[in-house]
Each structure stands twice: as C-alpha cells, then as structure tokens.
Design goal:
The complex is a heterodimer of chains A (567) and B (339). Chain A has one domain: MetI-like (MetI-like fold), CATH 1.10.3720.10. Chain A is built from 25 helices and two strands. A two-stranded parallel sheet of chain A has the order 1-2. The N terminus of chain A is likely disordered. Chain A is globular and about 80 Å long. Helices cover 75% and strands 1% of the residues of chain A. Chain B has two domains: 149 residues, D-Maltodextrin-Binding Protein, domain 2; 156 residues, Periplasmic binding protein-like II (D-Maltodextrin-Binding Protein, domain 2), CATH 3.40.190. Helices cover 43% and strands 15% of the residues of chain B. In chain B, strands 1, 2, 3, 4, 5, 6, 7, 8 and 9 form a nine-stranded mixed beta sheet that branches. The radius of gyration of chain B is 21 Å and the shape is globular. The termini of chain B are far apart. Classes of the chains: A mainly alpha (567), B alpha/beta (339). At the A-B interface, helix 2, helix 3, helix 11, helix 12 and helix 14 of A face helix 1, helix 2, strand 2, helix 3 and helix 8 of B.
Chain lengths: 567, 339
C-alpha cells in the first residue's frame, strides 16, 4: 500500500481492540507536541498570508467579482472537472487492467504507466505546442499528405485551448491515480473480488460493482493530488490560455502589485479546497474500509489472449506514449540538436547536483516530519494529533509562489534574529543564514509536499496491526523503540513510495525554488525557466531532458516498491 | 526541536555554497532579467574590473524578497526589464540615490530619475510583426482595433508587463475611455487567445493563424541570429518588423534599468557596475548580443534590427505612463482581453 486514505486507519480495526493503555503515558505528549510543531511550521506561511491579506482593504473585490472571477471560476471548474475525469478514467482503468488481467507486456506496462510523472506540466505544454503547432511536424506532415502548400489553406485544431490544457495535464497527472488505485487493487481487493467471482459475477461487473467502490479512498487520494497539482499550476495553464483562479491570483500580485488582494484571493481558494476535502470525508463517513491483518494476497490475474490482450495492451500503451514517450522523444531531438551544435554547458552538471541535493534534503525532511505526524496520531489518536495531521497537509493547497511569498516574512524574521544574536555575541554578523544557505528553500519544499508524505505514511502505519503495538508495549518498548523495531521496518514500502513521490515533485518544482533560492544557486528547473523565458528552447531542452531522466529513476523504483504487495 | 528543524539546519550546512556576505571585490545582483541575457555583460564587467558578480534571477517577487530582507539584504544592484517594476522599487524605498557624472553623461535626462534612484540601461520598442507579403509599411497602434484586422491579430497576455505598459501609454495619449474602446476592438480582432510569448507572434503568423501582431523589437534580432535554433530563423523570416507609432506620438518604448539597493553592502561596486553598463563598450554588447536599442541613438543597433528602419521613441515621459499602470491592468481584465 502506498498512498491511501489516512481515514482507513480509524476504520481498519473496528470493532477490534483499541490501542492498549500506555505503559509510559508521559512519553506520549512528546510525540503529540512534535506533531503539533510540524503542523505549526507548515501553517506559519499560511498565517503570514493571513496577516498580509488583512493588511489590505477590500477595494479589489468589486472588480474581481465583476470582471475576473466569473471567468476564473468557470475555467477552474472546467479544468478541474476535465482533468479529474480524465485522470480517474485512465488511472483506474489501467490500474485494473494490469492488476486483474495478464497480457503480453503487462510487466513492462505496470511501471511504464508511471513514467509521465517524470514530465513536469510546464514541459509537456511547451513540447506539445511545438509538436502540434501549424508549423510543427504533425501538421506539416498532414499538409504534405493532403497536398496543402501553406498552413493558411488548412486550419487545424490549436492546442492552446481549454481542451488542450485538460488533455495535456491529464496525460501527465493520471499516474497519481494509477499509483494509489493499483496499490489498493494489489493489496486489498483479492479476497472480496474472488468472493464476487465465486458468486458468478463477471469480471467487468466486478470492476464496476466491487473493485471500484472499494478503491474509492485510494482514488480520492490520487485524485486530490491531481486536483491540487492542476489548481496550482501556473506554467502550463498560462501557456495554454486557461484563466484559472491561480492565474488571477498571480495577475493581482504581479501586474496589479496588490499583494494583500492576491493573498485574500488565494486564502479564499484555500478555504474552498479545504471545504471540498472535508465534504468528501463527510460523504464517506459511514463507509468502512477494512483491511486484512494478514499479509494480503495478490489477485490472480486472468490471462488474456488474442484481441482482448491486444486491446488491453493498447489501452495501457497509449497514455504512456502521449504522456511520456512523445514529449521525451521531442526533448531528446531538441537536446541533441543543441548538443551537436554547442555541446553541453558544464553549468548543467552543477545544476543537476543542486537539484538532486535539494530534492534529497527536502524529501528527508518531509518523510521525517510525516513519520512524526503519522506516528503521533497512532500513539494517541484524538483531536490534537488528527488535527495536526490534517493541518500539516495544507501547504499543498496553495500555489507554490503564494506559499513562497508567505514564507518570506517568518523566515527572514528568524534570519534577522540569528544575525542580530551573532552580532551581539561575537561582534560580527552571519548574514541571512536561512535564505543564504537554501534552508528557506528546503523548508518551502517541505511545507509544499508534506501532504504527500502525511497521507502515505498514515495509511502505511495503519496497515500495521495494533496487536503488534500491544505486544511491543508488553515487552517494555518505548514508542521510539517501537517505531524503530516495528513500524519503520513494516511500513518501509509506504515510506519509500512517499519519499520517491516527494523527490520527483521536488525535482520538478519551479515557482518556490525561483523565489527562495540563494544567490548563484540554480536548479535544473530554474535554468530551464530562464532559458525558456528568453526563448532559447533548445538549450532549455537539455535541462528539461535531465529533469525527466532524474525523475525517471525514482519512478522506476516506485514501480518496484509498488509491485511487492503488502508492506 | 523537531526532526524537521534539525534537518533544516543540516540543509543549511549542506547547501551553503555561497557566503551570505560578499567580500570587497564582489557584488550581488538581483535581476528580473533572464540570466542568459545579462551574463555576457557581467562577464565583460568582471574581466575589466575584477569584481565578481553573484546573481539571482527572480522573475517575480523581487520587491517582496528585498523588502523582507530589509537592512540585511545582500542585494547591491536591482535590475528589471520593465519600467513599472523599477519605479515600484523606488516608490517602496528600496533604492538609494546615486550621484555619478558618468551616469548622467551617458543617460539622457528623461531616461533616468532626477533624484538618481533609477537609471535606464537600454531601450526596447513595442513593435508590429506583419506577414512578409502583407502590403503594409507603416502602422499606428490605433489601427489594431480597426475592423480590417478582424481575426488577424496575435498578441501575448494583456496582463503581461509589456502589454500593460502599452495600454498605459495608450491611456496617457488618449484617455481611459478611448483606451477601453480601443482595447475592446483589439480583443475583437484577436485570431487566437491572448497568450504565449512575443516570439509566438512570428511563429503563429508563419503558421497562418494571424497576419499581424505586437511584440518587442529585440526578439526579431534574437530569432534571426539563430541563437534560439534554426526554426526561429524561419519564424522571423516569415515576418517583417514595422515600428508603429501613436497617431499623436512615436513608438512606445520600455526600458531595462537598474538601481542601487538601499542597504547595498557594496555600493561602490554597485555604481561601478552601473557605470560600466552604460559605457559605449557595454552598450555595444546590448545592441549586438541582445538586439536592444542603446541609450545613445548614435550607437548603432545590430544590423539584424537596423534593416527594419529607425526607431523614433514616443516622447511621453515614462513616469507619466507609469501612473496609468493599475488602470491599464484593470482595463485588460474589464474587457476580458485574455478570456
């Protein structure tokens, strides 16, 4: 199980035994306090946004309501609805195909379906505009076949549209749904599905009537990651002409120089997101998702032959081709043109090093903090720890730029304090340590991607039977020992999966990195952005290609992690 | 302390590649300008002066970052690609006045702050790209709204600073009501959604999506130079560049400019850099490598740009134009320019 709904935990062992009475009750508050501290650190930039928002009047709102929000809300709803529908369809269908059936190429497709995760949305948008533009290869070929001389004689579809935006985002984001849903099918579904089969239900109906409803929490987790990514996307949306609320926030801030107004708008957005998440939980409140305490048995796939096998393979191959192979080949082509012409700039290796280092550190922070939050919630379930777990995911619901802006005041307050202290103690200052060292940046990435870690780790821990906790306690283990000896080893699959997802996201992250990085510090993404901004796309293609390659490694590992069922 | 904060400190040590405080022979540049475009100039400056330049390219959020860094900010020079952003820095009190004879001698009076808080470094004109075979040799910005061009115009987002500056100029020339009417007309003439970059105008004209479009002058040089790859040469060859004018003025220009940060730790080096950037040598790099228009009309523009005629900049003061920015941005939203 990788990322599944933390909700499973509270449901899982019902009506089973509650956690045992603590042997050392006094130790628990420490864990809870840790979880609360993590949540506080995550909420800090949000609070600072609240302060910024309160600093401005409401004069912006009449204009927003009259001229901006009608379109922004409509475009946002269309985009979220479209991308959501597309990712759930592709994600669950392919997850079901590779779990319930066996066909030639299935083992390959099982991990290849994850590959689009390595392609950032802004890169897929750039690539497809080039590929599908009237003067690009596709339309040129079509004109040649049909005998048209000039693009003026044959106008075809323009990718710069809402439809284009939905298709492109859906193509690179569906793996979130695929990943969570497949894990659910692998580990949870076997018994029930086989029971349904024994009762004579055909496989297709089993999917709709049994597997899909059972996978709902997993689909929701994957879908919510997709929707957050979509909502907070600026690069691709702007490039393809979708006028989302995030674009409105950005315009209000950058072009109107109205930061308080932008903060107000993004907080309203945050409230809507949080409300939606709570609504979904509420709608699911009476459902039970029990998981087997024993090592789950994988489903026995049905062997397909002939036409059905071909169709299944095709259904899995298409998303990979459009979401990964085509843009990657395009990048290879562009990068090759550049390399054969100008070689590879040595800077790029340093930037790759920066990217890896930053992503590693941020992932480690995120996983450690996620474990703290998840384990505290397990040790002492209750309003405090559950609240901390929910709050620790809030950073994902804000656009990266907005988050970074919110982070500036608290981080720099600390920096000023440290510098003043050093001045007072040693007579010489140390400068702005957190900003200057990249610590502020690592903090920002950690806040942004905590949601991925908390969700995944909570559910990973939830799969460990509480009887093991009881046994450990009886044998005199303290919580730290339990974590080390029992929970870490048993949830290592979930930890690895969350860490890899966070890592890929950190490698792709652009807006927060751009604003918070130290002087002379470039990552692959910032380099790419700088090149793309001045229009030297081929040079940018090399950086883009390395981002995709760096992203592929954890994706390949992720597939291995997911394949071994259980923990 | 939580593990998170411990790890933050680990991050601090591991990532510390750059000392927060620069030594005497260094200077720190915060720029909204793409690094690839400034680097040749900075390299030449370092070679000549021995001063190392540390840079950070901040597309957005320059003011927020410098503001929050406050009196401990390592920033020495703040450089922007848009006049509005530059003046914003001055208005927020993030700059310091500089007196330098070299700067006042090299920069015409209307392209620098009388108080010495900001200085223009180069000019960029907002021009018309038109399909090469189109029978068109001159153009007024006002004509963009003419029904003749219905479904034939390409342009980037109305919210982009370059277009906000153009709309501000229009307001400065004709007033807000006329500007709204004009912008509505332009919106009605668009061949596709406003968006993309200036280079996309040339590409889309080549692709038959539109016939004319508004873009910045130097992109023409950049495309023609082949720096962006062979395809961009084709895009550029599909269009010609015309310097449009206002009916009652000249061609709209924006500037790249710079200021010395209020709390600059290395103010001397900062001024040294500014003085270098307006020197004939650097201005030639601006013209030849970046295809921008030098401050001094006597310094020649690149041949790639020069073939399209001579720029006659509009004389409306930049400061006057800048007062209409917020109105221009709101207008673009009001007429739904990007929708």
């Amino acid at each position: 199980m990788t990322l599944a709904d933390p909700h499973i935990q509270s449901r899982t062992f019902r009506p089973g035994s509650p956690l045992p009475r603590p042997v050392r009750r006094r130790l628990r508050p420490l864990w809870s306090a840790g979880a609360v501290a993590v949540a506080a650190l995550v909420c800090l930039p949000v609070l600072s946004l609240v302060v910024i928002a309160l600093g401005g009047g409401l004069s912006l709102w009449p204009h927003l309501l009259a001229n901006v929000l009608p379109v922004a809300l409509q475009d946002t709803a269309l985009l979220l609805g479209g991308v959501g529908l597309m990712t759930v369809t592709i994600g669950t269908a392919t997850a079901w195909l590779v779990s319930a059936y066996d066909f030639p190429g299935r083992r390959l497709m099982e991990w290849a379906l994850l590959l689009p995760l390595a392609v950032p949305t802004y890169i897929v948008a750039y690539a497809y505009l080039d590929i599908l533009h009237p003067v690009g290869p596709v339309q040129t070929a079509i004109r040649e076949v049909l005998g048209y001389a000039s693009p003026r004689d044959l106008r075809l579809w323009d990718v710069r549209s809402m439809t284009g935006c939905i298709l492109l985002l859906g193509l690179v984001l569906y793996p979130y749904v695929y990943l969570t849903t497949r894990a659910m099918f692998l580990t949870q579904a076997a018994n029930v599905i086989e029971a349904a089969r024994t009762l004579g239900t055909p496989r297709g109906r089993v999917f709709l009537r049994v597997a899909l409803p059972m996978a709902r929490p997993a689909i929701v987790v994957g879908l919510s990651l997709v929707l957050m990514e979509t909502l907070n996307d600026i690069g691709a949306s702007e490039f393809l002409g979708a006028r989302t609320i995030t674009i409105a926030v950005y315009n209000t801030w950058v072009n109107r120089s109205d930061l308080p107004g932008a903060a107000q708008l993004s907080l309203v957005m945050l409230v809507i997101v949080a409300g939606t998440v709570m609504l979904e939980r509420w709608a699911r409140r009476s459902q039970r998702y029990a998981s087997s305490v024993q090592r789950p048995r994988p489903m026995a796939p049905v062997r397909l032959r002939g036409l059905p096998a071909g169709a299944a393979l095709l259904a899995c191959v298409l998303p990979v081709i459009f979401g990964f192979v085509a843009p990657a080949l395009y990048l290879v082509d562009q990068a090759w043109a550049r390399i054969s012409f100008a070689g590879i700039s040595p800077r790029i290796w340093a930037e790759a090093g920066n990217t890896l280092g930053l992503a590693l550190i941020a992932s480690a922070v995120v996983i450690a903090a996620g474990l703290l939050v998840g384990f505290a919630a397990r040790l002492r379930p209750g309003a405090v720890t559950t609240g901390a777990a929910r709050l620790s995911t809030i950073g994902y619901a804000l656009p990266g730029t907005v988050l970074a802006i919110g982070l500036l005041p608290p981080v720099l307050a600390v920096d000023h304090l440290l510098d003043d202290t050093a001045l007072a103690l040693f007579g010489s200052g140390i400068g702005l340590v957190m900003m200057g060292s990249g610590a502020a940046l690592a903090y920002a990435l950690a806040v942004r991607f905590m949601a991925i870690s908390t969700g995944g780790l909570e559910s990973g821990l939830a799969r460990i039977p509480s009887s093991l906790d009881q046994a450990a306690r009886t044998l005199g283990q303290r919580p730290a020992g339990m974590l080390r000896l029992i929970h870490l080893p048993l949830s290592k699959t979930a930890i690895a999966a969350a860490a890899l997802l966070v890592f890929v996201d950190c490698v792709k992250e652009l807006p927060a990195t751009l604003l918070l990085r130290p002087l002379n510090f470039e990552t692959l993404a910032t380099h790419l952005y700088g090149e793309a901004a001045r229009g030297t796309y081929e040079e940018a293609a090399i950086a883009a290609l390395i981002i995709v390659l760096v992203g592929m490694l954890p994706v390949a590992l992720l597939a291995r992690v997911g394949r071994s069922p259980g923990r | 302390m939580t593990p998170a904060t411990w790890l933050h400190f680990a991050a601090a040590t591991l990532l510390a590649g750059v000392p927060a405080l620069a030594s005497a022979q260094e200077l720190n540049l915060y720029t909204t300008r793409e690094p690839g475009l400034v680097q040749p100039l900075l390299d030449a400056f370092t070679a000549q002066s021995g001063v190392k330049v540390n840079t950070i390219f901040l597309k957005d959020g320059l003011t927020e970052r410098v503001g929050q860094e406050g009196d401990k900010s390592p920033a020495d020079v703040l450089m922007t690609v848009d006049f509005g952003k530059l003046v914003e820095l001055v208005d927020l009190g993030m700059t310091q006045p500089v007196t330098s004879d070299a700067l006042t001698a090299a920069i015409p009076a209307h392209l620098r702050d009388p108080g010495g808080n900001w200085f223009a470094l180069s000019l960029r004109a907002r021009v018309l790209y038109a399909a090469k075979d189109l029978d068109l040799t001159e153009f007024h910005y006002e004509q963009l709204a003419d029904p003749e061009w219905q479904g034939r115009v390409c342009i980037r987002s109305g919210q982009h600073p370059y277009n906000v500056a153009l709309i501000s100029s229009y307001i400065a020339h004709h007033g807000e009501a006329a500007a709204e009417e004009w912008l509505t007309g332009v919106k009605g003439n668009l061949a596709r959604k406003a968006g993309g970059g200036d280079r996309d105008v040339a590409r889309d004209i080549m692709g038959g999506i539109c016939d004319i479009g508004i873009a910045n002058s130097y992109y023409m040089g950049q495309m023609l130079s082949g720096n962006g790859g062979p395809e961009q040469i084709e895009w550029a060859n599909a269009v010609k560049m015309i310097y449009p004018t206002f009916e009652n003025g000249g061609t709209q220009v924006n500037i790249t400019g710079a200021a010395v940060a209020k709390y600059a730790p290395n103010p001397e080096q900062a001024v040294q850099l500014l003085e270098y950037l307006v020197s004939p040598e650097a201005q030639k790099i601006y013209a030849e490598a970046n295809f921008e228009h030098p401050l001094d009309p006597q310094v020649e523009v690149s041949e790639l740009i020069g073939q399209f005629g001579t720029l006659v900049p509009d004389e409306m003061p930049l400061t006057e134009i800048n007062t209409h920015r917020a109105a221009a941005s709101a207008l673009a939203e009001k007429v739904g320019f990007d929708n």
